[in-house]
Amino acid sequence: MSTSSTVTPRSRLLRMSALVVAVSAAALVxxxxxxxxxxxxxxxxRWNNELVHSNSISPGFSTFLGAxxxxxxAKLSAANQGASAIAYxxxxxxxxxxxxDQAPVTLAPHATQSLSLxxxxxxxxxxxxxxxxxxxxxxxxxxxxxxKITAIKVNSVDNQPF
Length: 162
Description:
Oligomer: single chain
Strand content: over 45%
Low-confidence stretches: 18-29
Number of helices: 1
Radius of gyration: 30 Å
Shape: elongated
């Protein structure tokens, strides 16, 4: 037994109309859709492979960053040159303390400790980035080695507690 479906001109017209509407809608959406292009990041990096920290405040680093969102990291090795332990703290600060990170450590005698810091901040206008370390007055000298400070300008930041 053979069955055949009969396509009437009206049903063919309805199918064609539906296809035209679907294709037109897709073209309309695709034609109106714009894709947001992310700006490439800007990287500002500074380094110093050897600083001698003899006073209570280390030789610091300070620069100004242009308006925008940044993720900023700093890392270094701190080498205690003396025979007594030192309470040692490094701080990175954006916009005069609006965003800060600290890395406090106790440096054992004649030992080296790695420190790393990170801060995320949106500067509404040009703002200052500062980095320095502190230790008690009169404590042994610290060799700050392989200091790297990098600010990466990004499209946006979402910085909130978890």
